[in-house]
Amino acid sequence: MRKLIEHTSYVNAIKVVPMGPNQWGVGVLRTDVDPNNPERNLAQIGLFHEYGTKNMPARPHWRVEYQNFQRELNSAMTAYMRGRTQGKP
Q: What is the pLDDT of residues 20-57, one digit of tens each?
């Protein structure tokens, strides 16, 4: 993973795509291939790192960031709702 990030292949492959009405997804498309091995796509490599394999431990990156986002969103929504109940816009 470090090599892919260093050469920006993986980072540049991260896309935001529409998933439905008012829904968006973020991730790596299966059509983006590993520049060092065109038979593998970057999405597969991302999954291997996220969940590990029988020969490699997991090195999560998406789950960690998603959990951070959820915490930040919950904090922001809580602050917003407290302000609304106290008559603040």
A: 998 888 888 888 888 888 888 888 888 888 899 999 99
Q: Which two tokens stand for residue 22?
A: 């008012």
Q: Which residues make Cβ contacts (< 8 Å) with residue 4, sequence separation at least 6?
A: 10, 11, 34, 42, 45
Q: Whole-angstrom Cα distance, residue 89 to residue 87?
A: 7
Across-strand partners of 20?
23
With 0.85 as the threshold, say if the pTM is over it: no
Query: What's the rounded Cα separation, in Å, for the pair 25 and 89?
Result: 30
> Tokens 């709702």 label which residue?
81
Q: Distance between CA 82 and CA 72 in Å, rounded?
A: 15
User: Domain extents for the chain?
Assistant: 1-58, 60-89
